[in-house]
Amino acid sequence: MIDAVKLGKLYKAGLLDDVVPFWLNYSPDREQGGYFTCLERNGEVFDTDKFIWLQARQVWTFAMLYVNVEKRSEWLAAAEAGARFLLQRGRAENGYWYFSLTREGAPLVQPYNIFSDCFAAMAFGKLYEATGNNDYATVARDTFYNILKRQEQAKGIYNKAVPGTRPLKNFALPMILCNLVLELEPLLEPSLVEDTIRAGIDAVMKQFYRPDQGIILENIRTDGGFSDSFDGRVINPGHGLEAMWFIMDLAKRKGDDALIRRATDIALQLVECGWDAEHGGIFYFLDVLNKPLQQLEWDQKLWWVHIETMITLAKGYLHTGDGRCAQWFQQLHDYTWQHFPDPEYGEWFGYLNREGKPLLSLKGGKWKGCFHVPRGLFQLWKTMEAIEQKYPAYLLQTK
Amino acid sequence: MIDAVKLGKLYKAGLLDDVVPFWLNYSPDREQGGYFTCLERNGEVFDTDKFIWLQARQVWTFAMLYVNVEKRSEWLAAAEAGARFLLQRGRAENGYWYFSLTREGAPLVQPYNIFSDCFAAMAFGKLYEATGNNDYATVARDTFYNILKRQEQAKGIYNKAVPGTRPLKNFALPMILCNLVLELEPLLEPSLVEDTIRAGIDAVMKQFYRPDQGIILENIRTDGGFSDSFDGRVINPGHGLEAMWFIMDLAKRKGDDALIRRATDIALQLVECGWDAEHGGIFYFLDVLNKPLQQLEWDQKLWWVHIETMITLAKGYLHTGDGRCAQWFQQLHDYTWQHFPDPEYGEWFGYLNREGKPLLSLKGGKWKGCFHVPRGLFQLWKTMEAIEQKYPAYLLQTK
């Protein structure tokens, strides 16, 4: 059902002929360093603030392309230009990464957000892989240790919850750690890698995944229980779906077929739960008890949700051959290709309303940068190649 | 053009026969005190958290009805039940009001939000007016002094902005103070009232209002300049429109016709800027330079925006007789009456998508409670009565 040859070419071309050139052309700030990420539909810069999440993710993307696709010097130069800006401007005195900077690099928003550190660690880890430069390794390692140190109190002094009344833990950090630890594996002691992986898989698959409802919760009580509150009820289907390919990658690494099977089954439950039967696409947020949400953007269709889901379904199909993965994959591909890529100026729209029309014209902003689309197209391209190799007979059958 | 007799009756009936009974029936928590505000379409409680904004606003609403409409003991009892819960549970040790509590009253979210204090002061001020009980006056006064003390650093330790890099001031507090100071006038020294009014009018009309663009900004630089940033560019048309009736009330109090005229002109600019020519209704957020916004909910149509705009246009018409106010008022009335009231279960939907369809089924939640709709219907009812008295000839003319 998946025409892996054709799709592999499509994803590769999207990555190398459309998305990467878009960011290389419009994003570098050649005067002040770092990248502009707030780009209008046509690439024009509409705001110059620099968000550490997106600066770091773009460093990672260009380093990843250099490591995994081709040793193009312009890609390495783009990654290192971003890294220089981050090293000069990105950290507070305690080594924590700010949330945002002005164009010139003056700190704007305090280091309240631990994911700035996660993406910085990821960036410098990949840049070490690309260059062998030990300075990058040190930054990645120090940042990773800070994350582990902060993880129980991730928001620190900026946490507005009164301690003790409703202690919750959030899905995002264990989920990101499942991916980050693989990214940093060459830099860390093996026992720390194993412990982090074990804890991550346990959190995602045994604590946040709720078999009774077939969904992943965004927040659970610290004792593992369900919290019947706005935070406790919220589901972010794309978040859980993205986590499932992180889990599949971990399972693949340790040759755990049963874990791959479980991650695939959960992914199928999540995509069924998240799909909008009326207008197509996957909802941004849902309430597990079908109560009204506090997220006014709940019914919107976001770029990252859709491409991450495609990766998960493609990997699920690759590893299990389950026809339901192929079927859902095709459905996601069709919706995504019809709605997100901009036929006029290239790259992807980020935010669609429920009906699938662009809600914002931007190609990049405060949260969308050079990350999910290129990472996703790369993952999809390589997964299509693997499917092509693993299931040649299947392809013949559909001709 | 405004059929004030007919509309006055409509608003009065909406208030007394629909909205007030809805909240009296479904909202009181007779076991634990205070109010449930998270109410489904049919009044069913879907979440039991208690948000200080909404607890206080509902106390104010029932006290206001008791003072201004009729001495119904059930209204006073409802107000005092909410006040008891607030007094027992609402404040931290330093006297600042928490943001939210559990159903039982355990503090959930710290006192990071100065508007909790604004609405608490408003509630206890009105309850003092209703009862003459000096304990309520003391709470209102102490809370008001705390607000003045905190106003320059409203978010306190929870402020994530790095000091000095981009110092901004926000429109909401000066705007709310314009209304709050009139609410608390009987409790405050006259010189404090005058100073607060003067500062409020200056902030709203001379600093946040930008004559070149004909709009009100949500955030400006502390030196009064425009900040070309996400926060600096954002417009909330409903916010500015609501402020214009606060200004008209202040202007009326001091007999300043020129100020009423200016507020009316600004209101007409704001409604023209905020109106969605394609689907009707007023946008939630816009960018003054037409750049993409960070608010994903920017194109939604919210209940409070529409009823507050109706009040402003009605008062603008009452005081100036400007036909454009009457015309816009009719347009707002038609849109609002077609889209917000729920014909099946009563009360109003709060959140519509751009096309005007309900986005959430709730009647009350974390931000919508027993406040804007009843206050608005009361204001509209009384303004229609005043129009009827001031322009009797006009009414004859349209018959």
Automatic annotation (TrEMBL), chains A, B:
It holds the Pfam family GlcNAc_2-epim. Keywords: Isomerase. InterPro entries: 6-hairpin_glycosidase_sf (IPR008928), 6hp_glycosidase-like_sf (IPR012341), AGE/CE (IPR010819), AGE_dom (IPR034116). GO terms for molecular function: isomerase activity. GO terms for biological process: carbohydrate metabolic process. SUPFAM superfamilies: Six-hairpin glycosidases. Belongs to the N-acylglucosamine 2-epimerase family. This is N-acylglucosamine 2-epimerase. It comes from Niabella drilacis (strain DSM 25811 / CCM 8410 / CCUG 62505 / LMG 26954 / E90).
